């Protein structure tokens, strides 16, 4: 029934499988597994001929098969860490009582008597680079340091953005502290995650009636959906370094996409848990009745998500909606549909976003200070008085949260005494004189030592960032796949801002309903816990880019360019052909795989390395096309071949096992999860082959 055509060369082997008439279910399954999708090609020859190809021969087999997702291992507890740009926190849930999400409530520092459910994402290292503190404790200790002493301590604030902005991220990428000293970024992130680990384990053990072992805990770390694979791998490596999980148990750690986690939580929200801006407009940061500030920081330590027969879910099966995660550093957008009958989620358009978070308002404030007092002075003050600069930005952050479109009175920003004194020493005049000279009428000076920012000034600070967010959402809403969307959920810390809420409602309120969860700042964290409890809840995702490898095909005169011609042993080959694994914005189901089979080029070869290429477009023919770049490598570590029974000698004796069949290594790649995964087996022995995929050493 099957006709197999083998084309063999001295360095490559290609398998074409075509199926004939399908008579029964067994034939169908065989046909499915051997389907070639009419895509053929041969991976490139050894690097002695072309150094940008892999150093192995191959048996090439195209397969896209959807298999049933593997069920999660039985963990006793799920701990999720929402690692944000401006604030971070954790939550956990026991699998035996998965309807209850426990919010963290033990943060050092901050406001006395308040159980802070998130902490500032700031970290302090001693002058000899040892970990000192994180969050409120780091901020408060650094604030109390003597100005001269503070110059020797390493304070890191909003350092997550570095991972997004670095195009060539590696394990050696460095972060710069406020005082200018640099440390490897992986070490800073590991310090932070180690702090979360210790903090969370204490609370989990207090809540647990039994002794928990390390392997009983599943960890979840959130990252922006717009992060590329290197950044996701970076967070995983930092978690390994922090001791969250051992590297040989990768399934114990999940990487959750922030807007996706928020969507998982939002799909279960009930009517009383959301605010519909179309029905309840917000004025001056207050509810419709003007009595209660709109704030997500409710202080309960444990949230019950139990079914209430008198309450109804806000969303229904079949609903389509957009989630806009407006955080401190980035804004992420994802589009989902709730599927029948299980209520799983299907992504309708690839995740998008950019660096449009609340940090943009902080940068605008810094630019305003440079305009008033001079860029050279601000840079000098940041270098010589780093702790005072941090105090100034903290003061602005506190006032920024109270800004609202209808506010009549000005916002007062306290200037540290060291700022006023430093300016007078270096410029020979007062800050009040500098304000008058700047002709900036929207900023006034208060005799109490404060900058008074008028409503016009606050609008000027917010407008560029908010305009970017609104424009990006409008562009997404204009896509054909998104036109039937009925709801837009605003989540994340920046979504608490009445300035952003009003702008989004004004621009998009007529095309869809703008919905804000009551616990808007904790939505991602709670959704990450739910994702850890059931990683299969998102059934279909969209591929963010096109992935593939470089291959050789038979050269066809007139179709292939002459500069791609390679002649080897009298045969003509076309080099650099891009073999596509998945395409940009392609729907990929969870568990759907792409398979390739390879044979080593040499007897005794112990490693196969395959280069992966990616592109932001699907219009790709060759790996040398514009916009195509090498983004990672797949490494297959080959085990010693098994010695047949009765063979003389062994591997130790240097015996070579010969046989009529070429050795085949079958690699299986998954693109439907939050991370790209690869596994492999030795077909002849059916033994697992150690397979890894690396995006950081590129």
Question: How does this model look, in words?
Answer:
With 698 residues, this protein is an alpha+beta fold. It has three domains: 77-258, ATPase, nucleotide binding domain (Nucleotidyltransferase, domain 5, 2-Layer Sandwich); 274-283 and 314-517, ATPase, nucleotide binding domain (Nucleotidyltransferase, domain 5); 545-642 and 662-691, Substrate Binding Domain Of DNAk, Chain A, domain 1 (Sandwich). The chain contains 15 helices and 37 strands. The strands form seven sheets. Strands 3, 5, 28, 29, 30, 32, 33, 34, 35, 36 and 37 form an eleven-stranded antiparallel β-sheet that branches. Strands 17-26-25-19-20-21-27-31 form an eight-stranded mixed β-sheet, with helices on both faces. Strands 6, 7, 8, 9, 15, 16 and 18 form a seven-stranded mixed β-sheet that branches. Helix 7 (258-266) packs across helix 15 (523-533). The longest helix has 23 residues, at 185-207. Mean pLDDT is 81; it is low at 1-73, 281-311 and 645-660. InterPro entries: ATPase_NBD. This is Heat shock protein 12B.
CATH architectural category of the largest domain: 2-Layer Sandwich
Please mark out the parts with pLDDT under 50 across 5 or more consecutive residues, or reply none. Answer: 1-73, 281-311, 645-660
Largest sheet: 11 strands, antiparallel
Shape designation? globular
Strand content: 25-35%
**How many domains make up the coordinates?**
3
InterPro entries: ATPase_NBD
Protein name: Heat shock protein 12B
Organism: Poecilia reticulata
């Amino acid at each position: 029934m099957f006709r197999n055509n083998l084309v063999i060369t001295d360095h490559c082997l290609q398998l074409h499988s075509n199926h004939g008439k399908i008579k029964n279910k067994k034939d169908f399954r065989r046909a499915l597994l051997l389907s070639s999708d009419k895509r053929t090609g041969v991976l490139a020859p050894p690097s002695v001929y072309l150094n940008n190809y892999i150093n192995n021969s191959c048996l090439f087999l195209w397969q896209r098969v959807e298999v049933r997702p593997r069920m999660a291992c039985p963990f006793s507890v799920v701990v999720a860490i929402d690692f944000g740009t401006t604030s971070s926190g954790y939550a956990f849930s026991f699998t035996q009582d998965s309807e209850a999400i426990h919010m963290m409530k033990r943060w050092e520092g901050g406001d006395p008597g308040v159980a802070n459910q998130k902490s500032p994402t700031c970290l302090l290292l001693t002058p000899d680079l040892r970990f000192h503190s994180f969050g409120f404790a780091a901020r408060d200790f650094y604030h109390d340091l003597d100005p001269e002493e503070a110059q020797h301590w390493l304070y890191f604030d909003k350092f997550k953005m570095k991972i997004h902005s670095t195009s060539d991220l590696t394990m050696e990428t460095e972060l710069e502290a406020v005082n200018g000293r640099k440390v490897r970024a992986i070490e800073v992130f590991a310090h932070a995650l180690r702090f979360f680990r210790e903090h969370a384990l204490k609370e989990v053990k207090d809540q647990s009636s039994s002794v928990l072992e390390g392997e009983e805990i599943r960890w979840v770390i959130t990252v922006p959906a717009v992060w590329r694979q290197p950044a996701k791998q970076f967070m995983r490596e930092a978690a390994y370094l922090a001791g969250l999980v051992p590297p040989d148990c990768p399934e114990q750690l999940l990487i959750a996409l922030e807007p996706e986690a928020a969507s998982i939580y939002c799909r279960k929200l009930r009517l009383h848990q959301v605010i519909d801006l179309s029905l309840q407009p917000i004025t001056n940061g207050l509810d419709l009745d003007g009595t209660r500030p709109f704030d997500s920081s409710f202080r309960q330590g444990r949230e019950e998500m139990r079914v209430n027969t008198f309450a109804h879910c806000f969303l229904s099966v079949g609903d389509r909606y957009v989630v806009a995660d407006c955080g401190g550093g980035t804004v992420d957008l994802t589009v989902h549909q709730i599927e029948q009958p299980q209520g799983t989620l299907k992504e309708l358009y690839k995740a998008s976003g950019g660096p449009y978070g609340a940090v943009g308002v902080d940068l605008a404030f810094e630019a305003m200070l440079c305009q008033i007092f001079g860029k050279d002075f601000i840079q000098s003050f940041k270098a010589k008085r780093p702790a005072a600069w941090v105090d100034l930005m903290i003061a602005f952050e506190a006032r920024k949260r109270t800004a609202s479109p209808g506010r009549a009175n000005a916002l007062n920003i306290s200037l540290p005494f060291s700022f006023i004194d430093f300016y007078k020493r270096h410029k020979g005049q007062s800050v009040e004189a500098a304000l008058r000279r700047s002709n900036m009428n929207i900023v006034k000076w208060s005799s109490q030592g404060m900058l008074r920012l008028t409503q016009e000034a606050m609008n000027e600070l917010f407008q560029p960032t908010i305009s970017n967010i609104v424009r990006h959402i409008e562009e997404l809403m204009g896509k054909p796949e998104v036109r039937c969307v009925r709801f837009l959920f605003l989540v994340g810390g920046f979504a608490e801002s009445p300035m952003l809420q009003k702008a989004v409602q004004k621009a998009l309120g007529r095309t869809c309903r703008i919905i804000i969860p009551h616990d808007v700042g904790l939505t991602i964290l709670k959704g990450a816990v739910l994702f850890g409890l059931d990683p299969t809840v998102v059934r279909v995702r969209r591929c963010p880019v096109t992935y593939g490898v470089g291959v050789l095909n038979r050269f066809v005169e007139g179709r292939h360019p002459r500069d791609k011609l390679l002649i080897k042993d009298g045969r003509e080959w076309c080099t650099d052909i891009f073999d596509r694994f998945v395409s940009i914005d392609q729907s990929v189901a969870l568990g759907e795989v792409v398979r390739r089979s390879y044979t080593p080029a040499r007897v005794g070869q112990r490693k196969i390395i395959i280069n992966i290429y990616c592109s932001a477009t699907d219009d790709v023919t060759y790996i040398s096309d514009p916009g195509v770049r090498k983004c990672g490598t797949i490494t297959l570590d080959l085990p010693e071949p098994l010695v047949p029974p009765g063979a003389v000698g062994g591997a130790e004796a240097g015996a070579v096992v010969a046989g009529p069949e070429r050795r085949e290594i079958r690699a299986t790649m998954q693109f439907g999860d939050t991370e790209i995964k690869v596994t492999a087996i030795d077909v002849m022995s059916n033994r697992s082959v150690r397979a890894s995929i690396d995006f950081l050493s590129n």
